[in-house]
Structure formats: C-alpha cells, structure tokens
Amino acid sequence: QLVAYEVKRMRAEEGNKQKILRHIKELAEKLYKNENPYPAVTMHKVQKPTEGCHLRLHQKPFPRLDEGTVQWIIDQATAKLQTAPPAVKAEKKCMVPSGPPIAAILERNGNALANSARRLEVVRNCISYVFENKMLEAKKLFPAVLRAMKGRAARHCLTQELNLHIQQNRAVLDHQQFDFIIRMMNCCLQDCTAMDEHGIAAALLPLVTAFCRKLSPGITQFAYSCVQEHV
Predict the structure, then answer these.
(1) Which of 21, 136, 156, 222 could share a disulfide with 212, CB 3.0–4.6 Å?
(2) Phi and psi of 213, rounded to 5°?
(3) Is 44 helix (H, G, I), strand (E, B) or coil?
(4) Of 10, 194, 17, 5, which Cα lies nearest the Cα of 106?
C-alpha cells in the first residue's frame, strides 16, 4: 500500500523531519493495531478487607444467594457466548494496485549507488598510486578517501585492496607509503562501529602485522605499532 499510494507523500516530506516522524508514527500505530486488534481486557480488582474489619460491630452478614437467579445469570452468559462472533478476526482480502514502477522510487537511490561506486573507485585509485609511488596523485585523492571511510563499503574495499598488495609481496614500504597506509588504516578503524569488529577490524588484523618499513638495518617497524590504540 505504501508503494501504491504514499510515494508522492514521501517525496513531499523529504527534508522535513517533523513530517517524516509523524508519518512513521502513523505507520507504527497501524502496524501495532494490526498485531494487537483487541484492546486489553480490564480486570476488576476485588479489594482485600482491611485488617481488623471482622472486629467491627456493624458487620453485615453475607446475603443468601438465590440458586435460581445465579443459574439464570450463568445461562444468559452461556447463550451470549454461543451467539458471539469468533474471536479471530476474519481476514479482509483486498487488491492493492501495483503503484508506480520500482524504478521511479529507486531513481534517487540510483544516484547514491553511483556515488558509492565512485567512492570505491577513489579508494582503489589512491591505494594504487601509493604502491606505484605516485605520491602527488595520491595526495590529491587522499581527503576524498578519508571522507569515504565513513561508509562501510569503502572500509571493506580498503581491506580487500591492501590484501591484494600483500599477496603480491608488496608489504615492505618506504616511509611515505607507510605514512599513507597508516593514516588510511587509522581513519578506517576510527569510523568502525561494534558491528565492524568481526568484519573490518578482523580483516585488518593480518594486514597490520604484514605491512612494515625498515627504520635502519635490522630494525623493522610494523603497522600494528601505529594502530593498536583503537578499541
């Protein structure tokens, strides 16, 4: 029904948080009513007698119950139950028009996907420039790469690309390359959430123990020494 009827309304609401929230609230109420069609039955609480009430002098004796009247009330209630409609609400089937084609709704998302693809391309290009020692080109793309790290796809892309270079035995870097790679890793880990712990962060673990630089003969610094402060 949303797809069929609400597309125009959704477009009109774009950018207006209050309208969007009101719309979400209405939807939530509809969904809640659908799951809970019958209001909760209020239970009549019988109050407990107060302490020491049996000692009062004006205590009235409990009246005798008339068996015929009680039976009549029970019969009335039984008759009502037999004629009552079934407890389960009969499903009303209705035809919902197909509404606008999905493409019409997703055309905005198309731009988002294109942007995402461009960001991944920027990350790949920047890493290639670093390993090809084209530092000027890498510097130009670097701010865009750091911005892209906000997205999970770009973080995932970084781990994949770096892994490819490890497999090509390109783990020993010069000082400038090392600096670039460390800054990317730090930025990537900084934007990681708890959800990424067993994905992105775990994928970086073997990488940070592989990438290194020679500080002097016999002394090697590995990447983990620069990124190990992250939670």
Answers:
(1) 222
(2) -140, 150
(3) coil
(4) 10
Element (H, E) at 46: none
Long-range contacts of 148-154 (CB under 8 A, 24+ apart): 148/119, 148/120, 148/122, 148/123, 149/184, 149/187, 149/188, 149/190, 149/191, 150/191, 151/116, 151/119, 152/196, 152/200, 153/116, 153/119, 153/120, 154/119, 154/120, 154/123
Whole-angstrom CA distances from 53 to 44, 48, 59, 153 are 22, 10, 8, 73
Tokens describing residue 16: 């207006």
Name residues whose C-beta falls within 8 Å of residue 53's C-beta, 6 or more positions apart in sequence: 59
Please tell me the predicted confidence (pLDDT) of residue 12.
Answer: 78
Confidence of residue 193 (pLDDT cuts 50, 70, 90): confident
Q: Which of 8-17, 148-157, 202-211 has the lowest mean pLDDT?
A: 8-17
Q: What is the DSSP string of 142-197?
A: HHHHHHHTTSHHHHHHHHHHHHHHHHTT--EE-HHHHHHHHHHHHHHHHT--GGGI
Percentage, residues of the chain above pLDDT 70: 84
Q: What is the pLDDT of residues 36-80, one digit of tens each?
A: 776 666 666 777 877 777 777 776 778 888 999 999 999 998 888
Angle of CA points 104, 108, 114, to nearest 5°:
120
101 HSE (CA, 13 A, CB side): 3
Instruction: Quote the pTM value.
Output: 0.49
Q: How far is CA 25 from CA 5, 31, 107, 209, in A?
A: 17, 10, 26, 49
d(CA 12, CA 28): 20
